[in-house]
Automatic annotation (TrEMBL):
Keywords linked to the UniProt accession: Cell cycle, Cell division, Cell shape, Cell wall biogenesis/degradation, Cytoplasm, Peptidoglycan synthesis, Transferase
First-level EC class: transferase
One Gene Ontology cellular component annotation held by this UniProt entry: cytoplasm
Organism of derivation: Flavobacterium album
Pfam families: EPSP_synthase
One example of a Gene Ontology biological process annotation: cell wall organization
Protein name listed in UniProt: UDP-N-acetylglucosamine 1-carboxyvinyltransferase
Length: 436
């Protein structure tokens, strides 16, 4: 397991460019299974989870060619369906939660899709019912081998239908959309997720010949087509990484410019950080954050009550940034209630922040109250372990602002979501090294 050693307290300065969006990459990479023609995708992040999916596609027989850093071509003209029933697939597929999204394209094009129970972050229960209920609505037969924890769906021909999703699942919506584009007739998906990454998926599919309308809303209508062709697609910058760098700049009182952020796809993210008192300036398509020498003050509601920052499906605030907001609040003036509604275990890393000297009261698995230090007390460096990607980057930000040396074990978790993070942070003055 990788380990990061961080010397905190350094003020950073410079420019940093966000990587391509991990969550979009995991979706759009699966679309290559829908066509025998060549698909070229650029701005693919070079991170563990995405590379695992690319290797899984290779194992399925997809021809993969690296054209440049972050740019690949894919051609699924000779898919090896027998691999889906191999022991190697059971092991490889289980190692990545994003592997669930190969099922929709395989079902649509080949009439069957299998997947072992996928892994991923230990952040609480993330059920797969929405995915499979959608496939069943389209006419697929579902089976589950409990002994091997192996899921399967099969269909002679999928048929379009109306469906109301029980939750606005992003990956569930993506999987169902990829299945429905080749179904016979019209499919309507109500209570669909509408995150920018899902919008990107729909736009990409339309460029391949799909007929999807309602993109960006919670009601998608899909007219099935006989086949799809190739395309070229560029992945958006990662909004979670952008939010992480905003938090890093504030916590370390650093002057940082985040380049090429695709402002129009950031939704409420800039506004949420502004509610914490952080100054953000839009400069073209960049975010400029001045050094907060005098700190930052959390806004109260107009009636004087304490601010609550809670996650919600898009266009609400993304749950992946709540841990960043929590860390940033530890040095603010004022207090805030963090309410993590969507996952049960994502706040359990706060005991490490408390060990560093943060004033946090964990009310229950979903809520924490943070009382800011206003930089009058500096967090202290400690030894800690990253439980998941987002907690890991939050710990890293806390460590970079802290007094003394911190060690973050299980740093491979951070590498699953952030590309060459130590190199990129050193380039703007961070004192961080990797110990393997």
């Amino acid at each position: 397991m990788g380990t990061f050693k961080i010397e905190g307290g350094a003020q950073l300065k410079g420019e940093i460019t966000p990587q391509g969006a991990k969550n979009e990459a995991l979706q759009v990479l699966c679309t290559v299974l829908l066509t025998p023609e060549k698909v070229t995708i650029s701005n693919i992040p070079d991170i563990i989870d995405v590379n695992k999916l690319i290797n899984l596609l290779r194992s399925l027989g997809v021809k993969v060619e690296k054209l440049a850093h972050g740019t690949y071509s894919f051609q699924a003209d000779e898919v090896n369906l027998s691999y889906l029933e191999s022991e190697a697939f059971k092991k490889e597929g289980a190692a990545l939660r994003g592997s669930i999204m190969i099922v929709g394209p395989l079902l649509a094009r080949f009439g069957k899709g299998y997947i072992p129970k996928p892994g991923g972050d230990k952040i609480g229960r993330r059920r797969l019912d929405t995915h499979f209920e959608g496939f069943i609505n389209l006419g697929a037969k579902f089976r589950y081998n409990e002994e091997e924890a192996f899921y399967g769906v099969e269909a002679e021909k999928l048929k379009g239908t109306y469906m109301l999703l029980d939750e606005a699942s992003v990956t569930g919506t993506a999987n169902i959309v990829m299945a429905a584009v080749l179904a016979e007739g019209k499919t309507t998906i109500y209570n669909a997720a509408c995150e920018p990454y899902l919008q990107q998926l729909c736009k990409m599919l339309n460029s391949m010949g799909a007929k999807i309308t309602g993109v960006g809303s919670n009601m998608l209508e899909i007219e099935g087509v006989e086949s799809l062709g190739g395309c070229e697609h560029r992945i958006l910058p990662d909004m979670i990484e952008i939010g992480s760098w905003i938090g890093l700049a504030a916590m370390t009182q650093s002057e940082i410019t985040i380049k090429d952020v695709s402002w129009d796809n950031l939704g409420v993210i800039p506004g949420t950080f502004r509610k914490l008192g952080i100054t953000l300036e839009r400069r073209g398509d960049d975010i400029y954050i001045p050094a907060h020498k005098d700190g930052y003050e959390i806004q109260n509601y107009i009636d004087g009550s304490i601010l609550t920052v809670a996650d919600a499906p898009w266009p609400g605030f993304t749950p992946d940034l709540l841990s960043i907001v929590l860390v940033v609040a530890t040095q603010a003036r004022g207090s805030v209630l963090i309410h993590q509604k969507m996952f049960e275990s994502r706040l359990f890393f706060v005991d490490r922040l408390i060990d560093m000297g943060a004033k946090i009261m964990l009310c229950d698995p979903h809520r924490a109250v943070v009382i800011g230090h206003d930089f009058k007390f500096q967090l202290k460096g400690i030894v800690m372990s990253s439980p998941d990607i987002r907690a890991g980057i939050s710990m890293l930000i806390a460590a970079l602002s802290a007094k003394g040396t911190s060690t973050i074990q299980n740093g491979d978790q951070i590498d699953r979501g952030y590309e060459r993070i130590d190199e990129r942070l050193r380039a703007i003055g961070a004192k961080i090294e990797r110990i393997d």
